[in-house]
Write a structure and sequence with these properties.
Alkaline Phosphatase, subunit A
């Protein structure tokens, strides 16, 4: 009969065999699978001990399961090739995460992937430049070198441990027990994070992701964000799949809109111009009290009574795709309505008698991505909504709008038109958003912040120069339509962060617990300009706009206001959601992410 110590040794050997037979692979795969929270903790000085622990046991479990898979491959060459493929994939995902954490202060998410899917080549080069910054490359190289060093030395470490006399079997047994516990716990956690693979509705995913088992850092959104590559990318791909399903639902909604009765009040013969800005911080405009003259053209229009500034408008989200999905459709986030359930309001304007044109300087993509292009250039929009779209994009918005005036010439098209311009605005990097010599320099930035140095002051000055250039572009659009009966609506799709306001730049770090952060990134500039001829012929529109200027509102009800001001009636027009209507009913406003800037009702 074999002794108990012999049995213990055999069991330990069986447990350890998959890892010990592929020791370097096991070590490298486990470290790379667990790398995300460790990289985040080191580079961001963050205390996320629970997430680091969870990721570590998940990394060990995933690596062990891969070693079991390798053990089943008998052919040595095939096994070596499979190891190489798995390590290359793990290395690529880890390096991508390192770049994202260095650039944005956050790991990759579905939003990140969506953003990459809808990024054109010029924007991609800007992202790549920032990705490959000195700090980003150093982070990638440091972590990769550390993992390679530990992996290569792992057999030597094990060999020296095996030379220890006495208690060797007990040591192997202890390692086997710890490994078994880690593999069991990690496998359970991976299985729990793969639960969304069984969901068939996007709302199920949202509910599941938002559940918090007692500690905010343990909310499932964070668990997935810092998880092993298998769990993380399974969730990202599933979310993209469910988003695609939402797009299919949205297309079905629009087919129903095509059969909807739409009427327009007689005499509403004017042009509707919608300008979608980008990353405009309202605190950087004199329209909202800024000390530098960044918007002289708009201020001049306000002084002559043609431009009305709205003081309390919120964006639905702080990313373009989510924001545009919600303000182009007649859903209401405060009522829990999905953008996929809402009517695309330009389609209703088209049915109301306007010709509709969409001119976008950010994307002309007709691809199959799950981002904003799929909605903007969907078959129903191309066939039934638009009378024309732009076919070119430009480095600078002024060149784009000049191209629209010179080549597309919408003003010369007979009949009343709705024309949408989507601009680059102040999208980062701000220094790339204006041509020629900057209007402002670091010396013009007089804000007193302890973190402001000369470099950061120059970045603020670049943002102000981009805002000044954006003002000239919007002013040129106003001039183009000035001699026509026209209503022009301008707003930014979301706000932004800048060094003079906070110790952050761009939208790098979500801070929903900070009301100032919410204000900077969600409370956006919004104004309505009315041409002289429209003000003379439609004084009631002037009155509605003037009375609405101080009301709290959100851009997810933008379409309701356009319909109301244009005299368009349809079953989905709701006066209580139209900020310009006397029957408007303010409610507690909610963003797509569930944030609220309004106090809770008493």
């Amino acid at each position: 009969m074999p002794s108990s110590s012999h049995k213990l040794s055999r069991i330990s050997s069986l447990v350890l065999a998959p890892a010990s037979a592929n020791l370097r692979f096991f070590t490298a795969a486990a470290l790379m699978a667990a790398a995300i929270p460790w990289m985040f903790a080191v580079t961001q000085s963050a205390r996320i001990l629970w997430l680091m622990l969870f990721a570590t046991i998940q990394g060990i479990a995933l690596s062990y399961l891969l070693c079991l898979l390798l053990s089943a491959v008998r052919n040595r060459v095939c096994r070596t090739i499979l190891k190489a493929i798995l390590l290359v994939l793990a290395g690529i995902t880890m390096l991508a995460e390192a770049g994202a954490i260095t650039l944005t202060g956050e790991p990759l998410t579905t939003d990140s992937v969506n953003l990459l899917l809808e990024t054109n080549s010029r924007e991609a080069s800007g992202f790549l430049t920032q990705y490959l910054s000195a700090k980003g490359v150093l982070t990638m190289v440091a972590f990769l070198a550390a993992i390679i060093a530990v992996s290569l030395s792992s057999p030597l470490i094990v060999s020296r441990l095996n030379r220890i006399r006495g208690g060797q079997n007990r040591m192997r047994a202890a390692v086997a027990v710890l490994l078994s516990a880690a593999v069991a716990a990690g496998t359970v956690r991976i299985a729990s994070l793969l639960r969304p693979l069984g969901f068939d509705d996007y709302r199920q995913l949202l509910v599941w992701a938002s559940q918090d088992p007692g500690n905010p850092v343990l909310i499932r959104t964070n668990q997935v964000k810092f998880a092993d590559p298998l769990s993380k990318w399974a969730n990202i791909l599933k979310e993209l799949s469910l988003q695609n399903r939402n797009l299919a639902q949205w297309e079905e909604t629009q087919r129903q809109v095509l059969d909807m009765p739409v009427k327009t009040r007689e005499g509403m013969d004017f042009n509707i111009i919608v300008i979608i800005g980008e990353s405009f911080i309202r605190q950087h405009s004199p329209l909202y009290g800024y000390y530098l003259p960044t918007t002289p053209r708009l201020c001049a229009e306000q002084a002559r009574g043609a431009l009305t500034v709205f003081t309390d408008m919120l964006a639905p989200a702080n990313f373009t795709t989510t924001s545009m999905r919600n303000f182009f459709n007649l859903n209401d986030l405060s009522e829990g309505e999905s953008w996929a359930e809402g009517a695309y309001f330009p389609l209703l304007v088209k049915k109301g008698g306007w010709k509709v044109y969409h001119y976008d300087n950010q994307t002309i993509s007709r691809g199959a991505d799950a981002g904003i292009s799929r909605m903007l250039y969907s078959p129903v929009n191309m066939a039934r909504t638009y009378d024309g779209v732009a076919d070119s994009i430009f480095d600078y918005d002024g060149d784009f709008t000049a191209y629209v005036e010179r080549t597309l010439r919408p003003r010369d098209i007979p009949g009343k038109k709705m024309v949408t311009y989507h601009l680059w605005g102040q999208h980062f990097a701000a220094a790339d958003r204006f041509p020629g010599i900057p209007r402002f320099t670091a010396a013009d930035i007089t804000a007193d912040r302890p973190w402001l140095d000369d470099t950061r002051r120059q970045e603020v000055a670049d943002y102000d120069s981009a805002t000044y250039y954006n003002d000239s572009v919007v002013g040129a659009i106003i001039d183009y339509w000035r001699d026509t009966p026209a209503m022009l609506i301008y707003f930014s799709d979301h706000g932004e962060d800048c060094w003079d306001l906070a110790p952050v730049e761009a939208r790098n770090k979500p801070m929903p617990e900070d009301p100032d952060w919410l204000d900077r990134q969600y409370r956006v500039p919004f104004f309505i300009w009315l041409s002289d001829s429209l003000r003379r012929s439609h004084p009631s529109i002037c009155e509605r706009v003037s009375q609405a200027a101080s009301r709290p509102a959100t851009l997810d009800n933008l379409g309701q206001a356009v319909l109301g001001l244009s005299g368009i009636s349809a079953p989905c027009y709701r006066e209580e959601r139209d900020v310009t209507s006397p029957r408007y009913r303010p409610r507690r406003r909610v963003t797509a992410e569930g944030y609220s800037l309004d106090p809770a009702p008493q």
